[in-house]
Amino acid sequence: MTGNRDMVSYLYSVTPLEELASAGRVQLLVATISSDLYDVALKILNNLNLAREEKESLWFPLKLLAKKPSGIGNKSQPSVWERCLNSCFKGQFCNKAMMQVSAHQLVDRLWKLFTNDTNFSTLVSRHKQLVAEAAKVGNVEFLVILIRSYPNLIWEVDEDYGTLFHVAVEHRQERVFNLIYEIGVLKDNLTSLYVEGNKSMLHLVKELPSLDRLNIISGAALQMQRELLWFQEIEKIMPKSSVNEMSGPEEEKPLKDMFSENHKILQKNGEEWMRNTANSCMLVATLIATVVFPAAFTIPGGNNQETGVPIFLETNWFTGDSLCL
User: Fold this and answer.
1) What is the pLDDT of residues 223-240, one digit of tens each?
2) What angle do CA 239, 224, 218 make, to 5 degrees?
């Protein structure tokens, strides 16, 4: 649990895991995933022979991986260069890349254990939960691994969250949302779907996101710009009938007007931020000009206080010949 990789590797090499109960091995698997020790976790999983009724305990490790967007790489195998460096320097170099490859293999292995099960199609609620958790945190690589093996995940609609793209819009995860452009013309069917409360993607994007997603960019003006880009991008791919509809059954305002109203405070803060930034820049420019302007007209050495004649006027450095040289 402390993440001591060297000690864990040593203990794994001297511990007969086959003598441990299945529950104990699963607990070790969870602990290594929680501590980002994906290489050891993969070894434990490869030697984990569970009965069919015990495989359900592996949903939790898979859910843990869904919440680790930075831990999973886009490659299932390390490059030759990474393997050479890792073997020559005993894991001191390319350690992060090797961990990401191990995490990728770990997700792929766990997911295949479930997809190869005959009862896999009955666990739709579990699938939706995994997709929603990964989409919330922007875990693109996790979603790609799952979708490549089971493309129907794109079309599965959760009653609370909608599709994975609705979750991406609500939580402003642009990398996850960009997967919609890989679908082609079928994306129109996804954008026309409504989630709980009869909300489309435009309904979700007209609301302000959570503060942790809003504050990934500093400055209210840049935050407002990002929100506007989100609305324009969703508006571009939505059906025209949805774009021009009212915000709700009791509302008579179009969605674009509701977007402006919900972002009014952010827009005001952005304008104030721009004014403060402009004033700060003007102050700095004034200070620079105050120093540079007199310096440009000050003769080196200064002037004689009584006569006003430059002190170095008669020296060779101030003659025309010296200047030409």
Assistant:
1) 999 999 999 999 888 877
2) 135
The C-alpha R_g of the chain, in whole angstroms, comes to 31
d(CA 252, CA 315): 84
CB 234 within 8 A of CB 188: no
- In the DSSP assignment, the letter for residue 298 is P
**Are 143 and 131 within 8 A, CB to CB?**
yes
Contact between residue 42 and residue 105 where contact means Cβ atoms under 8 Å apart: yes
Quick check: 173 and 138 in contact, CB under 8 A?
yes
Q: In which residue are the tokens 């002190």 written?
A: 311
Tell me if 14 sits within 8 A of 8, measured CB to CB. Answer: no
Give the H/E segment covering residue 5: helix 5-14
Please state, in angstroms and rounded to a whole number, the distance separating the CA atoms of residues 202 and 170.
10
- Chain-centroid distance of CA 160 in Å reads 23
- Domains in the chain: boundaries: 169-262
Instruction: Work out the number of other CB atoms within 10 angstroms of the CB of residue 191.
Output: 20
3-state helix, strand, coil in the chain (%, to 5): 65, 0, 30
Residues 210 and 170: their CA atoms lie apart, in Å, by 9
**pLDDT at residue 324, rounded to an integer:** 47
Residues in the chain with pLDDT < 50? 322-325
Over the range 124-157, which residues count as b (16 or more CB within 10 Å of their CB) and which as e? eeebbbbbbbbbbbbbbbbbbbbbeebeebbeee
pTM of the full structure: 0.78
